[in-house]
Write a structure and sequence with these properties.
Layout (H helix, E strand, L loop, with lengths): L12 E8 L5 E7 L16 E6 L21 E3 L17 E3 L1 E3 L7 E2 L3 E9 L12 E3 L3 E5 L3 E6 L4 E2 L2 E2 L7 H15 L6 E3 L11 H7 L3 E5 L1 E3 L2 E8 L2 H10 L1 E2 L2 E2 L9 E6 L2 E2 L11 H8 L1 H24 L2 E13 L5 E4 L8 E5 L15 H10 L12 H19 L7
Parallel strand pairs: 2-3
Antiparallel strand pairs: 1-2, 1-8, 4-6, 5-8, 6-7, 9-10, 10-11, 11-15, 12-13, 14-15, 16-22, 17-20, 17-21, 17-22, 18-19, 22-23, 22-24
Length: 418
């Protein structure tokens, strides 16, 4: 859809409609997004397409703008009970129905006998959010808004791999991360930063029309001074841990028995790492963490992190999943100084989940995370030093399916935006 920003609000899909009853078949797409967002509809992928932008709240305050490409014609799709606001209103679009289609240069009237039928559905992604008036900074995946003593963490659908943020997002990935984090924060009996994921609880500084953009993908949290180390716990030999074991027989200075194979189960170990805003986190021995934060804090971080891993691993096992490893973050409450569990928690982005049924030690395991994307990138011929390629639709769909399956297995609930 050209260079337009990609948003998904009231629905998670781009609805593509065939307009019948005209000399030239037309295709129209309806995208629902916040009022201040603009969609650049050109160049469109094929001739004779119209793009309608519909704005919440629906249906009474809908707006639509449409552009049809061939011969610079202008086309608009409007519902029978359209509002007059913005000239071209679109109500909640049904799977089929009678619509008015205006064609030509905008002055030759309406074809009133056209019928619009839903023909395909394409997932949309949120690659970047904007909340006007709020200080914003951007991480690899999250957009962070400062409210003073609180933050709003928006989990976008961005995906990073090999130190690059990929140009292709994974639809609803941010909602999986937010939903799973909220689930785990609620399950674990550990002080944490989460206040609410319900947009109705967000402060007035967040405009009502922007809240739909955030629904399901944003957390209102207590501000914390983050400890600049990742607290990694490993229960299986995989990833950088496996590479380190092959080279030295150790991971972060922790000696392991000889003769272990890739993906072998091990007694859970605490293996901290530096926290990098860009690039790779680097594994460090516990002694480095202890020297940086003090003996008491380091011991507390290790003890709590191991406890969380063991609780979460037991829950995952009951749901047919193996929690191979996870990465936790901690911080001190901005006001009280209380130690809090912060950031995301036990998601497919911060953890490695495997199928218990398919588990076979001695090699890599199929996983419910972005490893599916990493494997495709490895096979694609990309050199990892130039900008990464767009992901093909089948890789996007496969990755989305894996994230959603992890959500549903772990929570025991159906994914709301499935």
């Amino acid at each position: 859809m050209g260079n337009g920003r990609q948003f998904s609000v009231a629905h998670h899909a781009l609805h593509v409609w065939e307009v019948e009853g005209s000399a030239t078949p037309r295709r129209a797409a309806a995208v629902w997004m916040p009022r201040r967002c603009r969609l650049d509809a050109a160049p469109l992928p094929s001739a004779c397409r119209a793009v309608a932008v519909c704005v919440p709240p629906l249906p009474s305050a809908c707006r639509a703008a449409a552009v049809c490409v061939p011969r610079r014609a202008v086309a608009a799709v409007t519902a029978p009970r359209a509002t007059s606001d913005a000239g071209c209103g679109v109500g909640v679009l049904p799977p089929s129905g009678r619509f008015l289609v205006r064609s030509g240069s905008g002055g030759d009237g309406f074809r009133t006998s056209s019928r619009v039928v839903l023909t395909e559905e394409v997932e949309l992604t949120l690659l970047r959010s904007e909340l006007p008036g709020l200080p914003r900074r951007e991480g690899k995946v999250r957009d962070i808004y400062d409210l003073g003593d609180r933050l709003i963490l928006v989990a976008t659908d961005r995906l990073s791999a090999f130190d690059w943020v990929l140009p292709t997002g994974i639809p609803d990935k941010g909602r999986v991360l937010t939903g799973l984090s909220a689930f785990w924060f609620g399950l674990l009996k550990v002080p944490h930063h989460l206040i609410s994921i319900a947009v109705e609880d967000f402060p007035p500084a967040v405009a009502a029309e922007d809240r739909e953009l955030l629904r399901g993908r944003a957390m209102l949290v207590r501000k914390a001074r983050v400890i600049p180390f990742e607290c990694v716990v490993r229960g299986y030999l995989a990833g950088s841990g496996w590479k380190s074991y092959q080279a030295t027989g150790e991971i972060c200075g922790v000696s392991l028995p000889p003769g272990l194979v890739e993906s072998a189960r091990i007694e859970p170990i605490f293996t901290p790492a530096t926290k990098a805003e860009t690039g790779h986190d680097e594994n460090i021995p516990f002694s480095v963490l202890r020297a940086a934060v003090g003996i008491e804090v380091a011991e507390t971080l290790r003890s709590l992190s191991l406890e969380i891993y063991q609780t979460a691993a037991a829950h995952a096992q009951e749901r047919g999943l193996i929690l191979a490893d996870t990465k936790l973050e901690w911080g001190y409450d901005h006001r009280s100084g209380e130690l809090l569990l912060v950031d995301e928690l036990l998601t497919p982005d911060s953890s490695r989940y495997w199928s218990a049924e398919a588990y076979r030690p001695g090699g890599p395991q199929p996983s419910f995370d972005k490893q599916f994307v990493r494997d495709w990138l490895e096979r694609s011929g990309w050199d990892k030093s130039s900008p990464p390629p767009e992901l093909p639709p089948e890789v996007v769909a496969g990755t989305r399916a894996r994230y959603i399956e992890a959500f549903e297995r772990l929570t025991g609930s159906s994914f709301p935006w499935k």
